[in-house]
Amino acid sequence: MRAAKMIRAAAITALGLSFLWGCGEKETQDPEKISVGVTSYNQSDTFLGELLGAFKEDLEELERGDLSITVTIRDAAGSQRTQDDQVRELIGAGCDVLCVNLVDRADPSEIIDLARDNEIPIIFFNREPVAEDLMQWDKLYYVGADARQSGIMQGELAAAAIQADSQIDRNKDGKIQYVVLEGEPGHQDAIIRTEDAVETLRDSGVKLEKLSYGIANWNRGQAQNRMEQMINQYQNQIELVLANNDDMALGALDAYEKSNITETSLPLVFGIDGTAAGLEAVEQSRLAGTVYNDKEGQAEAMAKLAVAVVTGEGLEELDIQEERYIRLPYAKVTRENVHEFSCNQ
Ligand code: GAL
Ligand code: CA
Asked: What is the Å distance from ligand 1's center to 193 Cα?
């Protein structure tokens, strides 16, 4: 009896000791905690919503026994002032790395100053700061894609479709009457996509006649609106719609659905992004094609880079160009290969 008690007491002491010892050791074995602060230009943007969804999942996957990651996401709702305040707040709350989707890509100075003063690296994404700004400090990065490539690919898709089907030139005048739906003025993906798509079509030998254009800020509702105005003006003369992104291409389709234009007089409509709704519309042949903006690749690069800049490990595994840039390639999507992309979702 006595012996048993003694053994129990010894066991408890041992437990206590190992507990204490465990606690002491915890100091050094504590998982490294990384706090990632994100601010995006506008939460209602479809492509960015999907990109950030993938980003959160990637960060979770990067967690290990010795590494825990938390992420805080803020919506700047279209105001650079708000975004500057959010960065200040995120830094104040102790974040280790910032991911910034600038509202005004020409105005990152306040954010850069704040981050540099506090030694917090910044990964800009999707809205590209000008090179001079990115060169201000060696802890600034950009993750995105090459706008020119997306424009060229959209032009190639349109040229191939037009050359494969003589019915696209409905009025048989040897020219393709087209309109453009443009993203935000001043965004690297708006002007460049339009210019390169049109130039690629011309270079492929397609004769073009531009009827009109509408600025719709990446937004489906605004695009529907602009398209309704263009349909009112040009009725069934429009043979091709080039939209700078899928949401605006879908807005154009919405406008046609509400119009009195018959199915045989519908134009070819092309988007860019390959959002879930965009891919579905390609699958249903409502969109003639889109260009995949690799959100999974961009999200993964951002997540790995965020961890690497904080831990100092793994930077060399990333394909960083000019010490600052990671750009993921675009890909053409048509009815034929759309399934390869939809199964990613
Ligand atoms: C583009 C994308 C658009 C929109 C925009 C926001 O790359 O194609 O759909 O998300 O970024 O900056
Ligand atoms: Ca024509």
From this structure: 11
Distance between CA 115 and CA 129 in Å, rounded? 15
d(CA 87, CA 100): 9
Assess contact for 105 and 186: CB atoms under 8 A: yes
Q: What is the pLDDT of residues 87-144, one digit of tens each?
A: 999 999 999 999 999 999 999 999 999 999 999 999 999 999 999 999 999 999 999 9
- CB-based contacts of 139: which residues, under 8 Å, 6+ apart? 115, 116, 119, 120, 121, 122, 309
**What pLDDT does residue 344 have?**
60
189 lines ligand 1 (CB under 6 A): yes
Please write down the long-range contacts of 296-299, taking CB distance under 8 Å and 24 or more positions apart. Answer: 296/54, 296/344, 297/328, 298/51, 298/125, 298/126, 298/143, 298/144, 298/145, 298/328, 299/51, 299/52, 299/54, 299/55, 299/57, 299/58
Contact yes or no for 289/334 (Cβ under 8 A): yes
Q: Tokens 């993203």, residue? A: 183
pLDDT band at 342, cuts 50/70/90? confident
Rounded Cα distance, 212 and 243, in Å: 12
Query: Is the distance from CB of 223 to CB of 216 less than 8 angstroms?
Result: yes
Q: In a mutational test of the pocket of ligand 1, which residue from 40, 45, 242 has the highest number of ligand atoms less than 8 Å from its CB?
A: 45
CA 257 to ligand 2 center in whole angstroms: 22
Residue found by looking up tokens 């154009």 in the block: 252
Atom of ligand 1 nearest to the CA of 47: 10
Radius of gyration of the chain (CA): 26
Nearest-angstrom CA–CA distance, 85 and 91: 10
Question: What pLDDT digit, counting tens, does each position of 129-185 carry?
Answer: 999 999 999 999 999 999 999 999 999 999 999 999 999 999 999 999 999 999 999
Pairing between β-strand 208-215 and β-strand 67-75 as defined by DSSP bridges:
unpaired
Q: Are strands 290-292 and 240-243 parallel, antiparallel or unpaired?
A: unpaired
Q: What are phi and psi of 244, to 5 degrees?
A: -70, -15
Distance CA 32, CA 208 (A): 58
